[in-house]
Amino acid sequence: MKIAIVTGGSGNLGKFFSKELLKMNYKVFSLDIKKPKISKNKNFIQYQVDITDENEVKNFFKNINNIDLLINNAGIGVYTSSLERTSEDFKAVMNVNLLGNFLMTQNALKIMIKKRKGKIINIGSIYGVKSSNFNIYGKSKRNNSEVYSATKAGVIMMTKYFAAHFSKKNIQINCISPGGIFANQDKKFVKKYENITPSGRMGSKKDLKSVLNFLIDKNNTYVNGQNISVDGGFLAW
Ligand SMILES: NC(=O)c1ccc[n+]([C@@H]2O[C@H](COP(=O)([O-])OP(=O)(O)OC[C@H]3O[C@@H](n4cnc5c(N)ncnc54)[C@H](O)[C@@H]3O)[C@@H](O)[C@H]2O)c1
Predict the structure, then answer these.
(1) Cα radius of gyration rounded to whole Å, the chain
(2) Which domain holds residue 224?
């Protein structure tokens, strides 16, 4: 049985990735800062871990000696205006989106290098590639932040850095950058988002499935360091 670790496993996309992996017969270790809800699936094992805490991450990895896949999915944003940004908020986003990703990758790589095999998928964002378009947010209070974009650009760069450095160890590290996933957001926002998206709709979790399958396929040993946007063409315009 293959083993996967999914960070932010209690969140919207984390739950989806975990379910897909369980269907593919993976044992899934789900890490989240939130207290886990009870699950009857013995292959879905949840740990309450703050990925920004080096000791908590090290302690988790003490019990792990084999991993096939790490999905660095945990991520947060802040929604207030840049002019009101506090350094605490800025650092909180940096810590989860970059430091947490780094600590998980560093520990997972140590195991994968010994095995000379492994795959890591980072979850970036379209806003790590281009700035958010403020015309679509209006009064929805979901304005995207400079620090979210900066950290997601950082996630894409860490993907390339680690892929370049560990490719010879047969480790593939790629990034999936989703566009906005529909989750009953403000109606006006959704309409405006749809208007600036070539496919004319927001994404759904299911849209991420084919890229996940492709990246973790055992025959994929040569696609490395890529950022694949799953965005209905959002970045093409
Ligand atoms: N939903 C979207 O529209 C969208 C679009 C582009 C990118 N993304 C990215 O996808 C990923 C998942 O997003 P989501 O929509 O599922 O968000 P979500 O808020 O539903 O889930 C994120 C999870 O991460 C966990 N988390 C936060 N801080 C943590 C920490 N320090 N340690 C461990 N876990 C922590 C949260 O508790 C939460 O369960 C994020 O990286 C996000 O930036 C989402």
Answers:
(1) 17
(2) 2-236
Determine whether 127 is an active site residue: no
Q: At 217, which amino acid appears? A: D
State if residue 232 touches ligand 1 by the CB under 6 angstroms criterion.
no
- The CATH number for 210's domain is 3.40.50.720
Output the tens digit of pLDDT for each of the chain's 237 residues. 999 999 999 999 999 999 999 999 999 999 999 999 999 999 999 999 999 999 999 999 999 999 999 999 999 999 988 999 999 999 999 999 999 999 999 999 999 999 999 999 999 999 999 999 888 988 777 778 999 999 999 999 999 999 999 999 999 999 999 999 999 999 999 999 999 999 999 999 999 999 999 999 999 999 999 999 999 999 998
DSSP 5: E
Name the pTM for this structure: 0.98
Give start and end residues of each alpha helix (H) in 130-176.
146-166
User: Which atom from ligand 1 is nearest to the alpha carbon of 10?
Assistant: 39
C-alpha dihedral sign at 211, 16, 68, 156 = positive
Q: Which atom of ligand 1 is nearest to the CA of 15?
A: 16
71 lines ligand 1 (CB under 6 A): no
Contact 7, 32 (CB under 8 A): yes
Cα of 76 to ligand 1 centre, how many Å? 5
Instruction: Give 77 Cα–ligand 1 centroid separation in angstroms.
Output: 8
Q: What is the dihedral of CA 110, 112, 114, 115, to 10 degrees?
A: 170
Q: How many domains does the chain have?
A: 1
Q: Please work out whether the CB of residue 133 comes within 6 Å of at least one atom of ligand 1.
A: no
